[in-house]
Amino acid sequence: AAFASVLAIDYGSDWIKASLMKPGVPFDVLLNKDSKRKIQASVGWKKTDQLFGSDAYSIVYPTGRLERDHIVDALELGGLRIFALFNDGTAVAVNYAMTRAFPAPEYHVIYDAGASSVRATVVQFSSEGAGKGKAADTQITVAGVGYNREIGGTEMDRRLRDILVNEFNAKHKKDIRADRLLRE
User: Fold this and answer.
1) Is 89 exposed, middle or buried (0-12, 13-18, 19+ CB in 10 A)?
2) Which residue among 18, 55, 96, 164 is least enclosed by CB atoms within 10 Å?
3) Do the beta carbons of residue 54 and residue 47 sit within 8 Å?
4) Is 83 a member of any domain?
5) DSSP symbol at 24
6) Is 0.70 topped by the overall pTM?
7) What is the DSSP letter of 144?
8) In which domain, by residue range, is 67 found?
9) CA–CA dist 149, 63 (Å, integer)
10) Do 124 and 163 reside in the same domain of the chain?
11) Cα(166)–Cα(170) distance, rounded to whole angstroms?
């Protein structure tokens, strides 16, 4: 059997996270130069230098089918072989199923509330093929995926802020949004 290393990258709208799986090492989270797990999802150019992460000028990028195709093209141009691209709900389901048995089918909803979107993945876990000394094979079926690219953690933070400001203003009969120091 051939052994290979696998680089897993989570491209979020605000943060990028990466991990490495290789023979002899179960799971290694990659850190940036500041020993942090998350890297700001931004890219920029300063004269002839290309910058990314906290060194970059922030450019938010939406991702869809076309953007995923571009990621695959870029990785192939870089000489890397792609095993698969799959959504984060499926990745969580695979991770969850690795250490569990499912004698009866189970349905789970996996939520991912990122900075700019919210996704829900409905998965079914079941086991098949057990018998005569053979362990059951776990089957994962993605029953559905829903998402909203209009809301996310950042928008929820803004709405909560507005609720708290309005309550404060009503209680104290003062508009704190008019305070110059709070706007800076």
Assistant:
1) buried
2) 164
3) no
4) no
5) T
6) no
7) E
8) 6-77
9) 10
10) no
11) 6
